[in-house]
Structures are given as structure tokens and as C-alpha cells.
Structure prediction request, 448 residues.
Amino acid sequence: MISRNNTIKNFYAIFFGVIALIAIISAVVIGVMANDKVARMRMSVIDDANAYKIGQENGYKQSLYLACDSMKNLDANLGKTAVSRDTAHQTEMLAKIIVHSNQVNQCLSNLPFEASDKLSNCQKFVNQTQDYATYLLGKLSQGEQLTAAERTALCNLDYVAGNLYDFLQAYAESDSGMFITNGNGQNNVGSLSDSLADVDSNAFEYEKLIYDGPFSDSVEHKVYTPSVKLGRDKIDVIANELFTNAKFSAEINHEGKLYVYDVDNGKAYFTADGKVAQYEAYSEVTTLEAYESANADKCIESAEEFCRKLGYDVKGVWVSKTQDSVTYVNCATVIDDVIIYPDLIKVAVNDKGAVVGFEARAYLLNHTDWDVTFGQVSQSDARKAIDGALKVTNVARALVEKNNKHYLCYEFQCMQGDRQYYVYVDSATGNEVEIFKVIANTEGYTVI
Prediction:
């Protein structure tokens, strides 16, 4: 049995390694094509200098935002690998680290930097992270385990990636994040090099490496097919029972037929069996000061009440605030204190406590009579799968979906310093199923 498990893990290691290498080769080819395209552009005769400058500016901005996204994903996967105890899961995440490192490097190479020590440190970090992940992936493919020192090194790399992500994101959103159109001519490099020079040198510190590298995707490729189809006249009645002045607007066919109704201050989308799949309001939010004093519990209460009004028996399980004065509440079915994550409903509540957005696609596609009978693994035994560096702050029970399979898990909310993780351990096997890292950014609090 042990030999069979090792064979499976080696297969996954090689499989993900091949994927990583294919992705890297693809990125390099794309980079070469992009550089060739830019070279041809520069050799062309430019009749409109402003149009050329704006086009180049847009290209730089695109590379900058792609660098931000890739650095965020690199940060998340480094942290998740550092606290994972599952070899197959570690293999998968190390392959992603290789891909995201290469993407960051490619995006940075497309930006107009001036030579600097900080730029060299940044490029060195990304390259060494990619090489280190490749080294560790090779170890796992040989059936070896990550050592405590290697996991510590990953953790330190994670902190560096977090620092660099914060810098890139802040720069991209600042007035300084312009390379040409806010500068002095086509050869201006903007203020990126100067801003990078201001980054604390400690941000790049990490140990010398040994080699000297919640479940919202459960609705993909699914179409809602109702067992009963009501006529338009019956849906008209339901729409006016739920909303004020509901008037039929259009019929659309997108991932299943939907009937669109104009309602007071918004639009509501109904399925063919009369269920509300989506709602969007037109009301404007108030000032940031008013938003900051809003009560998260009130937002959860408003979200749950709105869901009940529409016929969905769910509870708020995750709250994320954003700078546009909206609080996003994720609601889900809860059975015998077990959170059913496939039954996810997303609700947006403004700072007045009014619902301004609603989306129930995951619930409609996944909801069924769930069996929440837990396996034989106790909570205390499941906790043994949690890395010792993590401090468990809360434990819940949850049904989760991964790769089209459902698992009844213990949900461990954990902290490592100021970093927050959610670790899901299968109640049937005691194995780690999934790890999410909480990322705080301008989009609010998200899990990756």
C-alpha cells in the first residue's frame, strides 16, 4: 500500500513538473514574440507621437498589472507550500510557483527600468525562487520529503513575495504609476526605478538557499437545467411578489435561459423555474467615512434576510469589505453546523445595509440533499495534519468540493504571525484536502 501511494505521488510530481516546464516554455515563446513585436514597432515610422506614446503606456500598464497578479499568486503558493503536509499538494503548488515566478520575471522584463541594485535584488529573488521550487519538485519526484529547513526557507521567501506584491500594487494604483504619458518624452522611464529604490533593503532578506527556488470555482462548465419550467405569466407573478414594480424586460440564453425584469432601482434575473439567479441594484453608495462605521453583523443580517426573502435558506460564512463602500457576504447552506461550500451565494450590501447585488449561480448548480455524515477521523486526529508553525484559532466543519469530488472536512482557521490560512482536512482519511491563504488588498479580503 505504501509503495502504491509513493508511486502515485511520484506520478503527480512528474505530471505537474511537466506542466510547469510546458508553461515556462510557452511563456518564453510568448515573451520572444512580444519583444519581436515591440522591436518592429520601434523600427516603424511613427506619424502620431502621442498615439504611439499612449499605446506604449498601455502596454507597460498591462505588464505592471500582470506582474502584480503573478506576484500575488506567487506569494499565496509559497505560503501554502510552506505549511502543507501533503506531498501531492506540495507538488502541485511548487509547479505553480515555477510558473508564477517565470510570469513575474517576464512581466518585469517588459517594463522600462533603470539599472539599480534593488532591481537586481528583485530579479535575483524571482529567479532563485523559481530555481528553488524546481529543486524541491525534483526531491518530491524521488519520493523524498521537504525538510524543516526547506519549509522555513519557503516561509521566508513567502514574506519577501508579500513585500514585493505590496510595493507593486501600491505603485500601480498611485499617480506615479505612469511610464511615458506622465513623463518627459518617449524615453522617460517614469518613477518606477525611483520608487523601487525606496523599498527597504530588509524586504529582500531571506535565508541563503540550499541549492546555491473559499471554492468559488465549483461552477465551471456547468449549466443550470431546472426540473420544472414555468410559463412567463407565472414568473411575472413571482417577480411582482418578490420585487416592486417588476416589468419583463428581456429573455436571454446564457448558461441556461434567464428572464430579465426591471424592478425598482435595479434588475432581477429569473430562471425558467422562477428562482432568482441574480439581482443588481443601481443605488449609489455613501461616503467612505460612513462605510467605515458600518457594522459587519448588520451586513450579514441584511444578506441572510434578503436570501430568505428569495427562498434561499443560507447563512453568512465569509465577509469581505472593499474600498468602494460595499461589503461582500458569502452565504451558504449550513446543515447540523456543517458549512456546505458548494451552495455558495454571494451578496453585496452597501453601507446603509441595503442589498445592491446578489448572485446564486453556484447554489442553483450544486444544491441537493447533502449527506453530512462525517468520517471516523476525530477533530483532534485531524489537527495532527496541521503544520506545527500554524496556530489554530478556530475550527469548523465543512463540505468542500475539489476536482469534482466532495469532502467532509474539518476547517482549521490558522495564523502564522500576521498571515491567515484556512486548512481543510478530510474527516475520512485525515489527509489535507485544501489550503487557502487570506490576502488583504484593495479588492478586500480574498482567499487564494
DSSP finds eleven helices and 13 strands in the chain. The chain has a mean pLDDT of 77.
